[in-house]
Amino acid sequence: MLCYQVFEISDRLEVLHVPGHTEGSIAIYYSARQALFSGDFVYECGDGGALIDWLPTSSIPSYICSANIMVDWFTDHPGVTVYPGHFSRLTAGRAADLLSQYMCSKDDACGRCCTQCMQSTTAVFFLCGCFRCCPC
Predict the structure, then answer these.
(1) Separation in Å, CA 33 to CA 27, 44, 69, 104
(2) pLDDT in tens, 49-106
(3) Distance between CA atoms of 56 and 68, rounded to whole angstroms?
(4) Number of domains in the chain
(5) pTM of the predicted model, to two decimals?
(6) Which CATH number is 97's domain given?
């Protein structure tokens, strides 16, 4: 179930909770400009299977659930421009395609297993604080 709150800040902004990349991932929809600020939830990565869900704070089941809901949301908002936290803008159709590709990539045990393996590896880096000194 998609949860969101509406705040009035001179214009209407809708905050959509889209857990998966992290538990607290959100997207902000600015209806006056048909703009969705998606953060790290969806961005141009070539193939949606490359969306990052292997962080220690990521959740594949949550990401799949959020992706499924947002594909429908994009169908209802076809004129939206998506402004991700990384790389170039996306159309609603491209964002929906990436999220659909993500869901397909997690349909088999191999896709889920690889992510779990990466989560274990990155958890060690987070515990050691290694990501804080990463220059990227």
Answers:
(1) 15, 21, 22, 31
(2) 999 998 888 999 999 999 999 999 999 999 999 999 999 999 999 999 999 999 999 8
(3) 22
(4) 1
(5) 0.80
(6) 3.60.15.10
